[in-house]
């Protein structure tokens, strides 16, 4: 026997009764007390989850120090960076087109503005050279804010932008600034003396077992401060919050007679004890930086 087909009106009536049944006082198939129990369960459940999350975050935050990271074993060797950076660490310009090198000059002016002698005298102090500037805390009593040593842009001499406002770019003798990335608590040294930075033509692969470099084109390099030294007095670094006015020490490299119209691949590295910067190192950017320089005539 065929089952009677429900009319559209019957279907609508059934849905209306499901949404609200006036006889049993049920809403969506449940009474008010049933809905109340469900809402109460989820309210308690989410309050419990929120409390657990808050407690977990509170306990975790108690293990953190506002001034230095609890763990930093991944930073055994700091990275390095050049200024101006150029695009993809490639600096290229034409001597005949001032607009091509003025961007680098403006970038250096901006970067070195915080190293002006007067600015450094206002915010930082003069420190005795060739020894670490230690400012340890006394137990639970923090020695904050910590002072920072002056690094005046005049220390960069011919690359300071003071005697030569074009930093040598207009004469084909450009200056490149190098800085060592900040690492809290780092105490670098080289045989008990200040670490230093050196640059040379970078080796690159030209065949399966063949290597080449641009040593014939890099020309003479001049370092400022002399010998590319990063004086010990700028270490250790205590962190941005504890040492607000810290100025990273810089090393400037001036290319005296680089070959024109030629790509020159350069690699600069830090020379310090316990800092492996050879090509076999796991991180090829640790303690060194590579860039390409091309000057068109």
Which residue ranges are poorly predicted, with pLDDT under 50 across at least 5 consecutive positions? Answer: none
Helix/strand/pairing class, anyone? alpha+beta
DSSP strand content: 15-25%
The shape, in one word, is elongated
Number of separate strands: 12
- The helix content is 10-25%
| Number of helical stretches of at least 4 residues | 5
Mean pLDDT: 88
Q: What features would you describe in this structure?
A:
The chain is α+β, with helices and mostly antiparallel strands. It contains five helices and twelve strands. It has helices spanning 8-19, 32-62, 98-112, 117-123, 215-218, and strands at 20-21, 26-27, 80-83, 90-94, 175-180, 196-201, 204-205, 211-212, 221-224, 250-255, 264-271, 288-296. A four-stranded antiparallel beta sheet has the order 3-5-10-9. Strands 4-12-11-6 form a four-stranded mixed beta sheet. Strands 1-2 form a two-stranded antiparallel ribbon. The termini are far apart. The model has no long low-confidence stretch (mean pLDDT 88).
A few lines on this structure:
With 297 residues, the chain is an alpha+beta fold.
Secondary-structure map with pairings?
Blueprint: H1 8-19, E1 20-21, E2 26-27, H2 32-62, E3 80-83, E4 90-94, H3 98-112, H4 117-123, E5 175-180, E6 196-201, E7 204-205, E8 211-212, H5 215-218, E9 221-224, E10 250-255, E11 264-271, E12 288-296
Q: Key features?
A:
297 residues; alpha+beta; 4-stranded mixed beta sheet; 23% helix
């Amino acid at each position: 026997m065929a089952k009677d087909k429900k009319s559209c009106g019957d279907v609508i009536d059934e849905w209306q009764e499901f949404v609200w049944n006036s006889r049993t006082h049920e809403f969506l198939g449940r009474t008010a007390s049933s809905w109340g129990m469900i809402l109460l369960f989820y309210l308690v459940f989410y309050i419990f989850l929120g409390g657990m999350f808050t407690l977990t975050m509170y306990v975790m935050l108690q293990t953190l120090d506002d001034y230095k990271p609890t763990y930093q074993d991944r930073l055994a060797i700091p990275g390095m960076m050049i200024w101006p950076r150029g695009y993809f660490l490639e600096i290229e310009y034409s001597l005949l087109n001032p607009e091509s090198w003025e961007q680098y000059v403006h970038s250096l002016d901006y970067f070195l503005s915080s190293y002006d002698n007067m600015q450094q005298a206002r915010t930082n102090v003069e420190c005795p050279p060739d020894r670490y500037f230690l400012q340890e805390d006394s137990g639970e009593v923090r020695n904050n804010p910590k002072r920072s040593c002056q690094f005046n842009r005049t220390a960069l001499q011919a690359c300071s932008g003071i005697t030569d406002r074009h930093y040598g770019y207009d004469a084909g003798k450009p200056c490149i600034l190098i800085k060592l990335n900040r690492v809290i608590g780092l105490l670098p040294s080289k045989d008990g003396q200040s670490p230093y930075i050196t640059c040379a033509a970078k080796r690159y692969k030209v065949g399966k077992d063949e290597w080449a470099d641009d040593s014939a084109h890099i020309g003479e390099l001049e370092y400022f401060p002399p010998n590319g030294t990063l004086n010990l007095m700028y270490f250790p670094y205590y962190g941005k919050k504890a040492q607000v006015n810290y100025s990273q020490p810089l090393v400037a490299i001036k290319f005296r007679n680089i070959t024109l119209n030629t790509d020159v691949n350069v690699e600069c590295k830090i020379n310090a004890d316990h800092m492996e910067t050879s090509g076999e190192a796991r991180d090829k950017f640790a303690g060194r930086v590579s860039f390409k320089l091309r000057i068109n005539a």
